[in-house]
Write a structure and sequence with these properties.
Layout lengths: L1 E6 L2 H13 L4 E4 L15 E5 L5 H21 L3 E2 L6 E2 L21
Antiparallel strand pairs: 1-3, 2-3, 4-5
The structure holds zinc ion.
The site of zinc ion (ZN) has 8 residues, from loops.
Length: 110
C-alpha cells in the first residue's frame, strides 16, 4: 500500500479513487469517515492509497494528468474580460459577443 493522494475532502478522495478504479488500479480511501481521535488533524482529511505498489508509478502519471485536466477545465470555465471593449464574458465563450474579439489565453509567469 502506498499513499498517492491527499484530498481536501471526502468527495475529492472518492473521485480520485473512482478514477483509478476505472483505469484498473485498485485504490482505497482512508480517513473519510473519521469523526474524532485524530487530535489536531482536520476530520475531513482523506488520503487515497494504491493497493498494489507495482501500479503506483502508473497511477501517479494517470492521476497527475487527470488532476491537470480538471484544473484546465476549471480554468477554462473561468470568466474573462475582453481586451478590446472590457466586456466580462463567461468561460464557455471563445469570442466577445459584444465586439467579436477573440479570447486571449492568459499566460502567467509566476
Ligand atoms: Zn469585446
Amino acid at each position: 500500500m502506498k499513499k498517492i493522494h491527499t484530498a481536501r475532502h471526502a468527495l475529492e478522495a472518492h473521485l480520485v479513487q473512482g478514477f483509478l478504479e476505472a483505469q484498473g488500479i485498485g485504490g482505497e480511501v482512508r480517513g473519510a469517515h473519521l469523526t474524532s481521535g485524530w487530535g489536531e488533524l482536520p476530520v475531513d482529511l482523506c488520503t487515497v492509497w494504491i493497493k498494489d505498489d507495482a501500479q503506483f508509478d502508473q497511477a501517479d502519471r494517470l492521476l497527475v494528468a487527470f488532476l491537470q485536466g480538471r484544473l484546465a477545465q476549471e480554468l477554462g470555465a473561468k470568466s474573462w474580460q475582453c481586451p478590446d471593449c472590457d466586456e466580462m464574458l463567461e468561460g464557455q465563450f471563445a469570442e466577445c459577443w459584444n465586439c467579436g474579439a477573440r479570447r486571449v489565453q492568459e499566460t502567467r509567469n509566476p
